Amino acid sequence: MKKRLIAFVSLCAAFMSQLAHAQTWPQRPVKVTVPFAAGGNTDIQARIASERLSAVFGQQFLVENRVGAGGAIAAEFVAKSPADGYTLLFPPVSLISILPLVQKVNYDPLKDFAPISILGTNPFILGVHVSLPVKNLKEFIDYVKARPGQLNYASAGAGTVSHLTPALFLARAGLKMTHVPYKGGAPAAVDLVGGQVQMLFGVPLDLVPHAKSGKITLLAVSSEKRMSQFPDLPAIAEFYPGFRTVVWNGLLAPAGTPKEIVDRLAQEIIKATREPGVIERLKKIGVDPLGNTPAEFAALIKSDVPLWREAVDAAGLKQEQ
Known about the structure:
- Helix content is 45%, strand content 18%.
- By secondary structure, it is an alpha/beta fold.
- The protein folds into two domains: 23-122 and 246-314, Bordetella uptake gene, domain 1 (D-Maltodextrin-Binding Protein, domain 2, 3-Layer(aba) Sandwich); 125-238, D-Maltodextrin-Binding Protein, domain 2 (3-Layer(aba) Sandwich), CATH 3.40.190.
- A five-stranded mixed β-sheet has the order 7-6-8-5-9. Strands 2-1-3 form a three-stranded parallel β-sheet, with helices on both faces. A three-stranded antiparallel β-sheet has the order 10-4-11.
- β6 (152-155), α6 (161-173) and β7 (178-181) form a beta-alpha-beta unit.
- α2 packs across α9, α4 packs across α11 and α6 (161-173) packs across α11.
- The longest helix is centred in the first third of the chain and has 23 residues, at 2-24.
- The radius of gyration is 21 Å and the shape is globular.
């Protein structure tokens, strides 16, 4: 009985200590780890979120770009960091839901992190070179079907979302094209404009400027429904029901981070995604604000697993040993 009482008292003491820490957090700057270089879609969103959190909590939320191994270095660093709320991860969907399927990583995407909230989402836009005699998605499908294996499509790299999305699309449509991987979405878009490749599923930030200048043609979006920014572009799901690939970028903490800290952060991200200024900044880069609860975020990650497994299989990828 005495041992049980001591154990109970120790448990209560630990809980009270954790609660007190959560209530006084943050007392120093918070590190927001971004797995890619500065200037990209994920980095821009991380800085928007960090600016908002710095203003709210009165401590600096500092973005640190920790690149390498497709983002795995950043994820592993955060997974092994103290679960005290001072080291956070701001990854895209690929780092949590895709990379572990195609590359051996030293972190468990479901067990090593506490989902906080998604700042924004964006689908990919299907863009083609203007030399192709097509004006809509159906014409493009017919054009490619008549030329199996003769056309190329670009991606930001093997195993990225911009690779898996077209692989899934081609599989659903029964089409054959040759994959040409690049080191990022921007150089892939440059070669699409130059005509070295004929198709690219890219983020709005990479494709829309070229479409406005008449150098490429936009045909569809990869989201389940049409985007409010591009209402004339059909969703691929209108042709192939159930098709949906969306990039999310959100905030995660190491597993075991006090729930009070996770909840406070989530509340502020949700508030931020309702603010006109934040909405405007996200819309400019083609991102739809979301803001969801930790439970909703966790459920979304789990629900995406079957979809990305199908896409990985369609791309013919196997996990590196």
